[in-house]
Amino acid sequence: MESNPTDVCYESDHTAESEFNVINYFNDDDSNLFFHRVDSDQIIYQPRQKKAKLFGQYIMGDILGEGSYGKVKECLDSKTLCRRAVKILKKKKLRKIPNGEANVKREIGLLRHLNHQNVIRLYDVLHNEEKQKMYLVVEYCVGGLQDMLDYAPGKKFPIWQAHDYFHQLLRGLEYLHSQSIVHKDIKPGNLLIATNEVVKITDLGVAEVLDIYMTSDICRTSQGSPAFQPPEIANGDEEFSGFKVDIWSSGVTLYNFTTGKYPFEGDNIFRLFENIASGEYTIPNELDSSLAELLRHLLEYNPANRPTIKEIREYSWMRRKHPQNTERVPSPPANDMLDAHHRMSVLPYLEDLHRVESTDDGPSDDDKTSKHHQLAPPSPSVAKKQAVQKSKKSTCRQS
Ligand SMILES: Nc1ncnc2c1ncn2[C@@H]1O[C@H](COP(=O)(O)OP(=O)(O)OP(=O)(O)O)[C@@H](O)[C@H]1O
């Protein structure tokens, strides 16, 4: 077969063409062909433009985490410019989880009425019937205490840090109890940390509201995490004091904060409940005797002997100021270890939303029809530019 220069060149650069978009210049008679070779070091990779997504007045950011009910994303409230988190719940998924829908309904019903510094705030609930999704807009937190423990040396907090967090847990719990609510699932995994080290009790999905006309805190059901359940639940008692369940779980939580371990363990839930029901556990010798004394009382077998929150505050370990002689365990970095400062992930999406493609002569055709403009709130472009600058500058108000 007769070959011409074109064939030869084409074959030799075939891979380059398919991978790097080689540009061919042909002249009319096809006799002068240039292959513009591009080496890999000449290629400029640009990060993929983040496409803005809005729902209601909220602009979505990156994923913060994922639970059994769905994803949690960061978002920005465009009205208040406050940083928030949004739990995205797929209704289909909820129906598949035992008590899923009921738990979410209960949590929403409860959170709507609660307002305390140490309990997560619910700001908004939105539905998308078409997508069968539900959006719960809550306070933004930088992480969870369980994630912090997982990263911490020995999987525990320094005593002074554990002391601070436990104090805050008691404050939040005291508020819930004052509202006749038994949380029933207190554990590090349900304690988030906001900016300024403020602990937030979250996940009220299995909480119970006591009848306000009842004088006791008797409960009959429990769905909490097994390792944090008290002997009366492990034994299958039909009735038990709800508040004392929360005191026991707080005791297991404090034990975990300060030792990195659990008082009761088991290969499976049956073994675990057997161990809890036996009431036998040890407190590591290295713990201060005043802390050991508090833990023993929190983990009293008989719920009636467990202290109330008011009484807990009187223990010498609680009243003491603990020296900050060890470094604080930080909240784990966001975005797979990349961002230790938890920068706001909504910004790149905001930039996409407010990208100005117009010239001085007015908006370009692209601008007039772009999706960004359909999505953006109807405000003049100047105001948009200002909003971007403002949101870049401001560290968002936290309430
Ligand atoms: N308000 C929030 N601010 C920041 N991150 C959050 C917030 N709420 C949850 N997250 C992150 O999202 C993850 C999933 O949270 P979610 O409450 O849906 O599930 P979970 O409590 O971890 O698990 P499950 O509900 O399955 O027991 C959390 O582990 C946390 O990392």
UniProtKB/TrEMBL annotation:
Residues 354-399 are annotated as: Disordered. It comes from the Eukaryota. PROSITE patterns: PROTEIN_KINASE_ATP, PROTEIN_KINASE_DOM, PROTEIN_KINASE_ST. It catalyses: L-threonyl-[protein] + ATP = O-phospho-L-threonyl-[protein] + ADP + H(+); L-seryl-[protein] + ATP = O-phospho-L-seryl-[protein] + ADP + H(+). One of its GO terms (molecular function) is metal ion binding. It holds the Pfam family Pkinase. Its EC number is 2.7.11.1. One of its GO terms (cellular component) is cytoplasm. GO terms for biological process: establishment of cell polarity; glucose homeostasis; intracellular signal transduction; regulation of cell growth. Keywords: ATP-binding, Cytoplasm, Kinase, Magnesium, Manganese, Metal-binding, Nucleotide-binding, Serine/threonine-protein kinase, Transferase. Residues 58-318 form the Protein kinase domain. Its cofactor is Mg(2+); Mn(2+). This is non-specific serine/threonine protein kinase. It comes from Ridgeia piscesae.
